[in-house]
Amino acid sequence: MDEIRIKQLEVFAHHGVFPEENRLGQKFVISAALRTHLRTAGLTDDLTQSMDYGAVCAEIQTFLTQHTFQLLETAAEKLCEHLLQTLPLLDSIQLEIEKPWAPIGLPLKTAAVCIERGWHMAYIALGSNIGDSKGYLDGAVQALEQDETMRVERVSDYIVTKPYGGVEQDDFLNAVLCVKTLRTPHELLDRLHEIEQTAHRTREIHWGPRTLDLDILFYDEELFSDDVLTIPHPEIPKRDFVLRPMAQIAPYFVHPVYHKTIMQLWEQLQA
In what residue span(s) does the 7,8-dihydro-6-hydroxymethylpterin-pyrophosphokinase domain sit (predicted)? Predict the structure, then answer.
């Protein structure tokens, strides 16, 4: 990944825990590494294929002067989120905010916070077999599209499938979508649960009927497991209703555990 770097941009703003800092203001120094693909810009000499670092500096200054935060951590977090949402070509950012006039009563050159944030690719399974199943799936897609921390990239066709898990119930309507997200896996899971709740999802029977079921299948190529969440979803190789729609939108995505493409896993399940 290529980078555009901004080093030690000085901004006078009003962030800090103490009321005097919010009232009087002080100097902040911002450095950033903006990660994007610069190949096309380099070959074409076309600014629209890159990011105007002058405009980015102005955006940073405007944001930090129009908002007031107590913590540098919050200022950095919100600024990263703002830049990622407003700069279409920005993939990720490493940001440092220095506070050289920090009122700590001891001699120091500067205090600083440095964070790294970026877009992550996730695949999400959708399912419903109660009520207006198409309406529930449409509503979930729309909720993700309207979330500023999400960019829905692709949505598979909706397919009708037989129930999984041995519970006698109606057929399901299933789909898989690909989304870019600024959320961590647990934050993404929380958001999916919120969307499920708007569809009055209940969890009374394991693998039972539900108005809306949203599962994280993959998150980048991460391998992760705790008491709440396992990534990749452990049931993927067994589920036609996941592999079939995902093969439509990402047939050559490689499962990071089995090292096989989605198409290969689907063909293996059908054999």
Answer: 206-217
- Residues with catalytic function: 99
Last residue of a domain, one of 84, 103, 118: 118
Dist. CA 84–CA 205, nearest whole Å: 40
Nearest Cα residue to 31 out of 14, 11, 52: 11
Q: pLDDT tens for residues 100-122?
A: 999 988 999 999 999 999 999 99
Task: Note whether 18 and 128 are same-domain residues.
Answer: no
User: Is the pLDDT assigned to residue 33 strictly greater than 80?
Assistant: yes
Q: The pTM is what? A: 0.91
Token pair of 261 as six digits:
């493409």
Q: d(Cα 189, Cα 207) in Å, to the nearest integer?
A: 18
**Per the structure block, which two tokens stand in for 50?**
């890159």
Range of the domain at 36: 2-118
144 shares a domain with 266: yes
First to last CA, the chain: 40
128/113 same-domain check: no
Whether residues 132 and 254 fall in one domain: yes
Strand ranges for the chain from DSSP E: 2-13, 26-36, 92-99, 111-118, 120-128, 150-155, 159-161, 172-181, 213-219, 224-225, 230-231
